[in-house]
Amino acid sequence: MNAGDPDDILADIRARFCTRMEKALESLRDAAQLPIEQSSLLLRAEAHKLAGVAATLGYGRVGTAAAKVDAIEGVSPDDPAVAALVLALNEAVAKGPQQ
Question: Which residues contact 38 (CB under 8 A, 6 or more apart)?
Answer without folding.
Answer: 31
